[in-house]
């Protein structure tokens, strides 16, 4: 989506609000909000959402966040398991190739 040049010459895109009061509601706001010489323009792009959606969407966002956290934990665990697997292959190869058995090397 193309940016919009505001009065203070900041260029901003339409963004999503993720507050509980306005979840997923798009708005256009000054990119220099709060800074000196900012125009502080703010306007909603989407109409106000209904009360039911305002109740449900934050819960859904929380569910997604928890699933993403769990997915990240499982990815870390999977990477660790892959490392153990690779190390076990290296150990098996070294054991067979170098003739180690029961901690003793056969010459
Ligand atoms: Zn501005």
Task: Explain this structure.
By secondary structure, the chain is of the alpha+beta class. It has one helix at residues 51-98, and strands at 4-5, 11-12, 15-18, 23-29, 42-44, 100-101, 104-105. Strands 3-4-5 form a 3-stranded antiparallel sheet. A hairpin with a 2-residue loop joins strand 6 and strand 7 (104-105). The site of zinc ion has 9 residues, from loops.
What does the overall shape look like? elongated
**Count of separate DSSP helical elements:** 1
What is the topology, as strand order, of the major beta sheet?
3-4-5
How many angstroms does the end-to-end distance come to?
Answer: 71 Å
SSE run: EEEEEHEE
Largest sheet, in brief, is: 3 strands, antiparallel
Structural class: alpha+beta
Strand proportion: 15-25%
What hetero molecules are in the model?
zinc ion
**Average pLDDT, all residues:** 85
In helices, the fraction of residues equals: 40-55%
List keywords for this structure.
107 residues; alpha+beta; 2 domains; three-stranded antiparallel sheet; 1 helix; 7 strands; elongated; binds zinc ion; transmembrane helix; transmembrane
Q: What's the gist of this structure?
A:
This protein folds into two domains: 1-48, no CATH class; 50-99.
Secondary structure blueprint with pairings:
Layout: E1 4-5, E2 11-12, E3 15-18, E4 23-29, E5 42-44, H1 51-98, E6 100-101, E7 104-105
Antiparallel strand pairs: 1-2, 3-4, 4-5, 6-7
Bound molecules: zinc ion (ZN).
Zinc ion (ZN) binds next to loops.
């Amino acid at each position: 989506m193309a940016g919009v040049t505001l009065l203070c010459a900041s260029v901003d895109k339409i963004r999503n609000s993720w507050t509980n009061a306005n979840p997923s509601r798009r708005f256009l706001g000054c990119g220099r909000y709060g800074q000196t010489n900012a125009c502080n323009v703010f306007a909603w792009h989407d109409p106000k959402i209904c009360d039911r959606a305002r109740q449900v969407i934050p819960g859904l966002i929380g569910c997604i966040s928890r699933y993403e956290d769990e997915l990240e934990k499982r990815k870390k665990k999977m990477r660790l398991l892959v490392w153990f697997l690779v190390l076990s292959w290296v150990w098996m190869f070294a054991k067979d190739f170098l003739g180690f058995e029961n901690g003793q090397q056969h010459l």
